[in-house]
Amino acid sequence: MQLIFIAMGLAHRYKHKYNYMKSPLFLLFFLLPFSVFAQKQTALTDYVNPLMGTQSRYDLSNGNTYPAIALPWGMNFWTPETGKMGDGWQYTYDSYKINGFKQTHQPSPWMGDYGQFAIMPETGHLKVTQNDRQSWFSHKTEIVKPYYYSVYLADHDVTTEIAPTERSAQFRFTFPKSDSSFIVIDAFDKGSYVKVIPGEKKIIGYSTRHSWGPLKNFKNYFVIYVDKPITLARLFSDSTLVDSSEVHSKHASAVIGFRTAKGEKVHLQVASSFISIEQAELSLKRELGNDSFEVTMQKGKEVWNKTLGRLQVEGGTLDQQRTFYSCLYRMLFFPNKLYEINAKNEVVHWSPYNGEVLPGRMFAGTGFWDTFRALYPFLNLVYPSINKEMQEGLVNDYKEGGWLPEWSSPGYADVMVGNNSASIVSEAYLKGLRGYDIETLYKALIHDANNTGPRAAGRRGVEYYNQLGYVPYDVKINENAARTLEYAYDDFAIYKLGKALNKPESEIAIYKKRSMNYKNLFDPSTGLMRGKNKDGSWETPFNPFKWGDAFTEGNSWHYSWGVFHDIQGLVNLMGGKKRFVSKLDSVFTLPPIFDDSYYGEVIHEIREMQIAGMGQYAHGNQPIQHMIYLYNYAGEPWKTQYWARETMNKMYKATPDGYCGDEDNGQTSAWYVFSALGFYPVCPAAGQYVLGAPLFTKITVNLENGKKVIINAPGNSAANKYVSTLTYNGKPYDLNYFDHKTLLQGAVLNYNMSATPNKQRGVKDSDFPYSLSNEK
Question: What are φ and ψ of residue 39, in 5° steps?
Answer without folding.
Answer: -85, -20
